[in-house]
Design a protein that fits this description.
The complex is a heterodimer of chains A (146) and B (236). Chain A is mostly helical. Chain A has five helices and no strands. Classes of the chains: A mainly alpha (146), B mainly alpha (236).
Chain lengths: 146, 236
């Protein structure tokens, strides 16, 4: 698969930047626009771009389907688990203020970070799962088939 | 201010044009691409409306991922849509006209554009704006509302996304081998990277041979009685 040299070179350069931007969106979500959902989608988009350019098998080698399966459950578990932890610490479900004793605002910070991380994992994994599921059902197309 | 209004109207006009193009086109590939364009224009419009977070999501989800997913789904179907006979277009047209008229009728109840006393700008919305600074100490109120004040809703959304992924996983499988793709023709259980339909017809001679199982990868089990409990996803 030698054609598309320009696409391959450019995307090789762009994909790390896209992934990096996803993490920026994730961790800067408290200060600017963004958050777990957007970051997850962007992260998934970087892998999907890789799959589009280098083929699905290469993408599956980079991010194995088993990771995707684990990631999507882990994300929801992290979100729900944060709620359970706040529960155990004596607060209501998902009331992050109790996470750090005496500093409710700080607890909110940590809670939001944990929860957004869960959303990131869940969304990125599910997007990839859907892409893998649909993408695996057809053979690789040659350029003329479009 | 006036220039922003012009911008908004321009974006809306573009949306209408793209929507009509989508309706008129027959090539599904072009339609999928135009849907991406539609999302991108919407995202630009949301930016002009100062809804940056929504624009962000629209650009990433609508223009990015969903275009690719629609493309992947389209490749499993036809490339062209058949024209619908005129007789069957009347019913949908009536429904659309009726719904459109109902919406125009409802416009009278909507708050004016930028109204400071609209329901969205009073009551609980103001509360969030006032209290985020002292309760959560983060500048982005949207994140505070999403993750903290409305944490239950976001949890529900995460679960919905998870359920969507789970549904696709159960129906199709991550490797396209869920359900009947893991059937065992000729007594050999097929559990491979791609669905049988996706591969060039499996050789019949392939079946009785002792599979040269390469260690852990793609375990083509040939046991007489496979356990009833099939593991999901198959080969790792």
């Amino acid at each position: 698969m030698t054609p598309h040299v320009i696409l391959r070179i450019i995307s090789k350069f762009l994909i790390p930047l896209i992934a990096l931007f996803a993490f920026y969106v994730q961790f800067h979500g408290d200060f600017g626009p963004g958050g777990g959902f957007q970051a997850g989608v962007i992260l998934a988009a970087s892998v999907i771009l890789y799959a589009l350019i280098f083929g699905l098998d290469a993408a599956k080698k980079a991010i194995p389907p088993s990771w995707v399966r684990i990631g999507m459950s882990l994300g929801v578990l992290l979100y729900g688990g944060t709620g359970v932890v706040t529960w155990m610490l004596g607060g209501e479900f998902l009331n992050y203020s109790v996470l750090i004793d005496g500093y409710p605002a700080k607890g909110q910070h940590y809670g939001i970070i944990a929860v957004e991380l869960g959303v990131l994992l869940a969304v990125a994994s599910v997007m990839l799962a859907i892409f893998y599921a649909f993408g695996s059902r057809q053979p690789d197309l040659s350029d003329e088939d479009w | 201010m006036a220039s922003t209004i012009l911008l908004d109207i321009g974006f809306m006009a573009m949306l209408v044009v793209v929507a009509f193009a989508i309706v008129r086109l027959r090539s599904l590939f072009a339609i999928v691409m135009l849907q991406g364009v539609y999302s991108l224009v919407s995202a630009a419009w949301f930016v002009s409306l100062d809804a940056v977070d929504v624009a962000f999501t629209e650009a990433a989800v609508g223009a990015g991922v969903s275009t690719v997913l629609m493309l992947a789904a389209m490749l499993l179907a036809d490339r062209e849509s058949r024209p619908v006979p005129l007789g069957r277009q009347i019913g949908p047209l009536l429904i659309v006209v009726f719904a459109g008229l109902a919406m125009f009728y409802a416009i009278g109840d909507m708050p004016a554009y930028g109204d400071a006393h609209s329901p969205a700008n009073s009551y609980v919305g103001n509360d969030y704006l006032d209290r985020t600074a002292e309760e959560i100490h983060i500048p982005n109120v949207v994140t505070a509302v999403l993750a903290s004040y409305r944490g239950y809703d976001t949890f529900g959304e995460a679960v919905v996304v998870f359920a969507a992924g789970l549904g696709v996983l159960l129906l199709l499988g991550l490797n396209g081998n869920a359900g009947r793709w893991r059937a065992k023709p000729n007594g050999v259980r097929i559990s491979k990277q791609a669905a049988p339909a996706a591969r060039k017809r499996p050789l019949p001679a392939d079946a009785p041979q002792p599979a040269p199982a390469p260690a852990a990868a793609s375990p083509t089990r040939r046991t007489k009685k496979p356990t009833a409990k099939t593991k999901k996803g198959g080969s790792s």
